[in-house]
């Protein structure tokens, strides 16, 4: 059974379900979030640290180090070197068997292209052992958060601002999406588009009008990558378009290296990379043009 | 000598009122000397400090404060407080690997929160430079600690070039409503006693802020008793131990041990 709910509601649903299941889960949030969940779980398990993003994530890192399973939110651009170091320490603590830290990271139009956001994302993707996921649908938002709260590893969840109101079908009850698993959202035989977040929704929409030509792979997880599925798709189509919207080339670099190293002989054309802001009015045209160019090889 | 406790406003305590048990007093000195040796190795041959800057001018009080923690208690402090980590039995060879950046008051608040929610009995001690208390996030963390009666002790110290930071922090602390004690300086016996009291109080629930101003003149060094360092807290402490009957040779042996233990790498 599925119900159609908004992306933001799917996240709250996952939090509610998992907090009911596991009493060691605690939310360290901005004032509004903390108040909302405090009404459901009591003030004990919902701590408001609303005036400082830096303070909030440091409090959360400390609580996670002492054995709690902590969910905290911090905008991408606030993740400076000290907080990246805190996350790296959280990874080390998780390796020692202590509970993980789950960081929800809103980002999007307001921070797009900002050097601080780019550096922050590159810093996150460089931490060995830290998972970074970017759900594009309400079902994935619920499932990936639930998996993070069941797992033993620190996870950063990139939540694009434009997706908050996006409505989609979400399985009722317990629903998990494995971290590190990508998803084919459209199947075609001539070209693979690899993307994540809102850009993958745009790619899926475009592929629907191309009648079986284009495979769309929604990464869902930027680290670790679903290497097997990426290679399967590339081997099946021979052409690759990487659509990036996260202001960082790190994931694209990793995927390019993977394809060149493991599936070079299957390529029928160059690997193209397209920087795209899906909220731009010209995004669809840019995507169509890039596809057309690759399909002409 | 340090400013006497009676010369300061607010809560304080006199040095004479808190002599340490025999054995504990020597262990404190050993830890201070070990810290000095680590610090001395953090200075290059041209006397320029290496990137890791130790808060060497208050290490006597810092070592003593950390020594007041119980076995299961937690310490949250940067590598600059190497003396506190050594007092918590960190091996000297691991001292340079400690993090030097981060918001340790916020982390300590989180650790104390975790302890409280998991029904633990540990107290968390945060060591931070007093100027950090001026940050908005510090005030917010103290508010969380007060509102939830967290088992947290915060000791904020002042280096020579930060003079006035302790005084400046008082109004903000009063605004937060946290219990505050102001020490006379980085004097080990009062720091130990104040921290031990605060830890005992925090274990029952409720945070405390201890403010430790800088001594008026302090120079780092590995010796004691020198006329050139009359206000060195470590030297003053060693002299008091001798006055209390510890043989000079015993203290020299502690220094030799510290020199030997700190020779790593």
Describe this structure in words.
The complex is a heterodimer of chains A (297) and B (265). Helices cover 43% and strands 22% of the residues of chain A. Chain A is α/β, with parallel strands linked by helices. Chain A starts with a strand and ends with a helix. Chain B is of the alpha/beta class and 265 residues long. Chain B has helices at residues 24-40, 59-67, 82-87, 104-117, 136-147, 165-176, 188-203, 233-243, 248-261, and strands at residues 74-76, 124-129, 152-157, 179-182, 208-212. Chain B has a five-stranded parallel beta sheet, sandwiched between helices. In chain B, helix 2 packs parallel to helix 7 (188-203). Chain A binds chain B through residues 24, 26, 28, 44-45, 47, 49-52, 54-56, 58-68, 70, 81-82, 85-86, 89, and chain B through 74, 76, 99, 101-103, 106-115, 117-118, 120, 135-138, 140-141, 144, 148.
Q: List unreliable stretches of 5+ residues of chain B.
A: 1-11, 217-230
Q: Rg of chain B, please?
A: 17 Å
* Through-space gap between termini of chain B: 36 Å
Going by helix content, strand content and strand pairing, the class of chain A is: alpha/beta
Assembly annotation: heterodimer
Topology readout:
The complex is a heterodimer of chains A (297) and B (265).
Chain A: E1 2-6, H1 7-21, E2 25-29, H2 31-41, E3 46-48, H3 53-65, E4 69-73, H4 81-95, E5 101-107, H5 115-125, E6 131-133, H6 138-150, E7 155-160, E8 167-171, E9 183-186, E10 191-195, H7 197-208, E11 214-218, E12 221-223, H8 227-237, E13 240-244, H9 250-262, E14 271-275, H10 283-295
Parallel strand pairs in A: 2-3, 2-4, 4-5, 5-7, 6-7, 10-11, 10-13, 13-14
Antiparallel strand pairs in A: 1-8, 6-12, 9-11
Chain B: H1 24-40, H2 59-67, E1 74-76, H3 82-87, H4 104-117, E2 124-129, H5 136-147, E3 152-157, H6 165-176, E4 179-182, H7 188-203, E5 208-212, H8 233-243, H9 248-261
Parallel strand pairs in B: 1-2, 2-3, 3-5, 4-5
Helix pairs in contact in B: 1-2, 1-8, 1-9, 2-7, 4-5
């Amino acid at each position: 059974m599925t119900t159609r709910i908004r992306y933001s509601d799917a996240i709250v649903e996952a939090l509610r379900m998992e907090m009911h299941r596991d009493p060691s889960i605690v939310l360290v949030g901005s004032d509004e979030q903390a108040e909302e969940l405090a009404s459901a779980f009591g003030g004990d398990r919902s701590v408001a640290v609303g005036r400082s993003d830096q303070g909030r994530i440091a409090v959360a890192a400390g609580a996670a180090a002492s054995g709690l399973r902590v969910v905290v939110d911090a905008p991408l651009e606030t993740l400076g070197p000290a907080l990246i170091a805190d996350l790296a320490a959280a990874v080390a603590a998780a390796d020692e068997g202590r509970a993980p830290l789950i960081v929800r990271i809103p980002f999007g139009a307001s921070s797009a292209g900002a050097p601080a956001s780019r550096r922050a994302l590159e810093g996150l993707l460089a931490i060995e052992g830290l998972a970074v996921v970017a759900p594009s649908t309400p079902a994935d938002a619920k499932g990936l958060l639930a998996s993070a709260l069941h797992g033993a590893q620190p996870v950063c969840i990139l939540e694009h601002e434009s997706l908050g109101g996006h409505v989609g079908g979400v399985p009722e009850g317990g629903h998990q999406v494995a971290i590190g698993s990508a998803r084919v959202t459209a199947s075609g035989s001539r070209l693979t588009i690899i993307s994540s977040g809102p850009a993958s929704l745009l790619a899926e929409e475009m592929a629907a009008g191309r009648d079986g030509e284009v495979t769309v792979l929604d990464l869902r997880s930027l680290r670790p990558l679903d290497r097997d599925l990426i290679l399967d798709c590339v081997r099946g189509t021979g052409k690759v378009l990487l659509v990036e919207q996260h202001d960082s080339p790190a994931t694209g670099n990793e995927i390019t290296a993977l394809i060149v190293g493991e599936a070079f002989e299957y390529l029928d054309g160059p690997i193209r990379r397209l920087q795209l802001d899906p909220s731009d009015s010209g995004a669809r045209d840019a995507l169509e043009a890039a596809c057309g160019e690759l399909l002409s090889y | 000598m340090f400013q006497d406790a009676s010369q300061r406003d607010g809560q304080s305590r006199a040095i004479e009122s808190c002599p340490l048990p025999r054995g504990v007093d020597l262990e404190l000195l050993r830890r201070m000397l070990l810290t000095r040796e680590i610090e001395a190795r953090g200075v290059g041959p041209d006397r320029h400090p290496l990137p890791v800057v130790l808060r060497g001018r208050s290490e006597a009080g810092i070592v003593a404060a950390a020594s007041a923690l119980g076995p299961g208690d937690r310490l949250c402090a940067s590598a600059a407080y190497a003396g506190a980590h050594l007092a918590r039995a960190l091996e000297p060879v691991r001292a340079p690997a400690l993090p030097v950046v981060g918001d340790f008051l916020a982390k300590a608040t989180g650790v104390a929160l975790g302890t409280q929610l998991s029904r633990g009995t540990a107290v968390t001690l945060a060591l931070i430079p007093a100027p950090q208390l001026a940050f908005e996030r510090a005030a917010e963390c103290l508010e969380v600690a007060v509102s939830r009666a967290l088992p947290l002790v915060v000791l904020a110290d002042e280096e020579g070039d930060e003079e006035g930071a302790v005084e400046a922090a008082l109004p903000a602390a009063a605004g937060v409503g946290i219990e505050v004690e102001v020490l006379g300086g980085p004097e080990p016996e009062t720091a130990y006693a104040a921290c031990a009291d605060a830890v005992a109080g925090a274990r029952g629930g409720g945070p405390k802020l201890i403010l430790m101003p800088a001594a008026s003149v302090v120079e780092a060094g590995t010796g004691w008793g020198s006329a050139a360092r009359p206000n060195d807290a470590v030297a003053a402490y060693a002299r008091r131990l001798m006055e209390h009957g510890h043989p000079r040779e015993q203290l020299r042996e502690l220094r030799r041990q510290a020199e030997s233990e700190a020779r790593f790498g």
